[in-house]
Predict the 3D structure of the following.
Amino acid sequence: MNLSKTFSQAQYDAFKQSTMVKQPLRKEINLHELKFITIDTVDYCGLKLGMSKRAVKDMMQILGLAQTFGGKLNNVFGEQFTNTLLNTMKDAISTQKSLSVTLLVSPDRIIQRIHKSGSSWVSTENFFDIVERTIDKSDLSINNMQVNNDGGIIIGTTNPNSEFQLTGKNLDSKQEVFQGGLNFNRNYSGVQVDPFLYRLWCSNGCVTKEFEESIRMTNINPNSWNEFYKNLERIEANNFQPKGFADKVKMAANTPASLAEMDNAIKLIKNSSNIDDKNIQPFVPYGETYNAFKRMGIQPSELTHSQKKNARTNVSMWDIINGVTDFASHDYGFEIKNPENTRNEMMVQAGGMLTKNYDTQNLLVAQPF
């Protein structure tokens, strides 16, 4: 299997083993074996298990109830009545339909998801099988690996032979050189495989979920595999460059970011780290824009969000996006909150910034009235 210069085979094997330790327990049971203690706590064979909000929603869906049903009953009739009613309904449904479900329980004894049997969760073993088969088939190299305590796994890959260059107005062709690849993400909802773009000039990574090449696998069956490989063949045929990527980059380079878009980028970086306002300037150069508005007697902090969306800055959307991906892709000495998830999530957010409709793209500069 191909590994980049960043990782050795021993490091990959150790990473893989660490994910096995953290993977959630998968247990198939009959629904009547669960007993509600509270709306988000159940008893299973004498073992007390918590339930995540997503698992509570799963349970309400299985019982054919609105997601807010339990909370509303609690407020009106109290917890004891709600638990008794839910247990009665659960037992009636499970007895009538012999309903089996699959629990996904994290190491801290929290039920994270509840699936009806037949909905096969993508296990850690299956996830690595997908990744390794795809890497070998498509000549990809691993350049990013992350795992968290909730069973989430992220592996970023690029194809060294997929290098492509973008040219156009306000684009420096020497800087806009990319390698394409795939970002594999396994979580409690399944496996998400998205295009991954690696900008060689500054070693920035960007994950794009909105292009048509993205695919989600919630179970392993022939149809899922067929759909996955159809998408893979399509992105391979385009040299791992997502369809529409070049057009979006060119539009971003020629569209001024709005004050709202600039503020959103600043908040994303600040909420993800311990960076202060002074040190954020190299990533999101807001100083000149803020000062220009102040010279006009306009305090940016006093504008509403809607007003900020219609206020142009002197920074392009492409520069804003690259500021976020630069911060996410490198260690600049700032403390990152929950780094196992945060860096990849920032790359995903940057991809969303690229593919969105920009606030000022249809804004008229001059009008007759």
In short: The CA atoms of residues 287 and 303 lie 16 Å apart.
